[in-house]
Amino acid sequence: MGKLDGKIAFITGGNSGIGLATARLFRAEGAQVVITGRNPKTLEAATAELGDGVLSVQADVTDIPALEDAVAKAVATFGKLNIVFPNAGIPGATPVGKISLAAFEGIIRTNLTAVFFTVQAAAPT
Q: Phi, psi (5° rounding) for residue 79?
């Protein structure tokens, strides 16, 4: 019996890196997981690796309607969410005087705005 039996986890960026490692751990502990990712190939590979009890949804976290749709699909499939891990993020250096506004805003939109809207989308569940 796992620590997360009966729990439903929603993980953005669950198709690679820390998100995929977390999805593996949550599955090992008995949770069903919903993973999102932008890349259809890595999303498909992660889904195959994680096996049963996994729903994958292709979505870019900076696309708020797509993110909200991913949460809706998760709830429609599993009935609720118990755990939300807004993991998706991108690296980016932001040296003063050497970064464009577009590059800075892209980093903020992915690493801050998307986290807020992931939690907001999942809150009513």
A: 90, -25
